[in-house]
Write a structure and sequence with these properties.
Layout (H helix, E strand, L loop, with lengths): L1 E5 L3 H13 L3 E5 L2 H10 L4 E5 L1 E2 L2 E2 H11 L4 E6 L4 H9 L4 E4 L4 H16 L5 E4 L2 E4 L4 E4 L2 E3 L3 H12 L4 E3 H9 L10 H16 L6 E4 L3 E4 L2
Parallel strand pairs: 1-2, 1-3, 3-6, 6-7
Antiparallel strand pairs: 4-5, 8-9, 9-10, 10-11, 12-14, 13-14
Length: about 220
């Protein structure tokens, strides 16, 4: 899962990033309104975490910008203020949740997972594509009743495909979703092909249909 954290407290930002990456997420960071705005306009995220009090602007204004261009993106407001007005304003602007500092990192992780399930998968813990079933709570994938042994990246890749059925996804989009800013330092995106090749091979070997279609010179489509 790809996250953007907009937070100007560098110690908290580092703690959140370290913990959430250890939980398997791809994390990008912004320390002020302008950085957050640029990333929101340039990239796609599963969930954006926004502190209300940030330099060079206001977190609620940033949330408004996010919802105006990418309304399906999950969002959680973070604030040191235990203010009912801030909470109400954030929720009215489209925030999916609100958490007040100080908070426990496992609680934040639980809220992120809840927002993702609710927004991307309509609350379902099992995503079914014909003979394929993706269990989002346990990160298991099954073909009929047979469990498929996938690496964490292969699982994330399949979930991303299943969440964007019949849409063409470019190599760049797939790479950014799974590896974040790290892809900017790479010479090419050949590793995307290798991960897709391995995922396809494991699914077909388990008895699944081959749903991953290569779109010449563009990317891939999970054709259902």
């Amino acid at each position: 899962m790809k996250l953007l954290i907009v937070e100007d407290n560098l110690d908290l930002l580092e703690n959140m990033t370290t913990y959430l990456e250890r939980e398997g997420h791809i994390c990008e960071a912004a320390e002020d309104y302008r950085q957050g705005f640029d990333k929101i306009m340039s990239h796609s995220y599963d969930v954006v975490l926004i502190d209300i009090m940030i330099p060079k602007g206001n977190g609620l204004d940033l949330l408004k910008e996010l919802k105006s261009v990418k309304p399906q993106t999950g969002s959680i407001i973070i604030s040191a203020k235990n203010s009912l007005d801030d909470k109400v304003n954030g929720l009215e602007l489209g925030a999916d949740d609100y958490i007040t500092k100080p908070f426990q990192l496992p609680e934040l992780q639980a809220r992120i997972k809840a927002v993702t399930r609710r927004n991307q998968h309509e609350g379902n813990q099992i995503i079914e594509v014909h003979e394929l079933s993706i269990h989002t709570n346990t990160r298991e994938v099954k073909v009929d009743d047979q469990t498929v042994d996938l690496t964490p990246k292969e699982y994330d890749l399949l979930l991303y495909f299943a969440s964007n059925k019949n849409f063409v996804l470019s190599k760049q989009t797939i790479a950014e979703h799974l590896w974040g800013d790290y892809v900017d330092h790479l010479e090419n995106l050949d590793f995307v092909y290798q991960h897709i090749k391995n995922l396809r091979k494991k699914l077909v070997a388990a008895g699944a249909n081959d749903y991953i279609e290569s779109i010449y010179s563009i990317g891939y489509k999970f054709k259902v």
